[in-house]
Design a protein that fits this description.
Elements (H helix, E strand, L loop, with lengths): L10 E8 L5 E8 L2 E5 L6 E11 L5 E11 L6 E11 L2 E10 L5 E6 L1
Antiparallel strand pairs: 1-2, 1-8, 2-3, 3-4, 4-5, 5-6, 6-7, 7-8
């Protein structure tokens, strides 16, 4: 199983928040087996490993990714993202949720 080719070509601009905190910008970069994420300031970054992917009934792809934060407030922590990607005109839209392993913490990811 691989990340679909059309998702590997671009940086995907999005924003995330934990619980009801303020939205923060993030860039998602996907490769064949997962990818990485980072904030524009470089204060937070981490890696993704692809667990599963499939077609969404309304178009696009759903990816389930395991993440590891390498730098930032959750450094060393891991979790699961469930993200729905769709091609819209000249950009890729994303929306989804993420959960911190061994915790009740959760968050949201949406396109800018």
């Amino acid at each position: 199983m691989k990340v679909p080719e059309w998702l590997r070509a671009n940086e995907i601009a999005a924003k995330f928040r934990i619980s009801q905190d303020e939205w923060q910008p993030v860039t998602i970069l996907l490769n064949e087996q997962g990818g990485k994420y980072r904030t524009p300031t470089g204060e937070e970054e981490g890696t993704f490993n692809l667990i599963a992917c499939g077609n969404h009934p309304h178009g696009g792809e759903v990816l389930i990714l395991h993440w590891l934060e390498n730098k930032g407030p959750l450094e060393g922590h891991t979790g699961i993202d469930t993200l729905w990607f769709q091609q819209k005109d000249q950009h890729i839209e994303v929306r989804g949720t993420f959960f911190l392993d061994r915790s009740n913490d959760y968050g949201e990811i949406i396109s800018n």
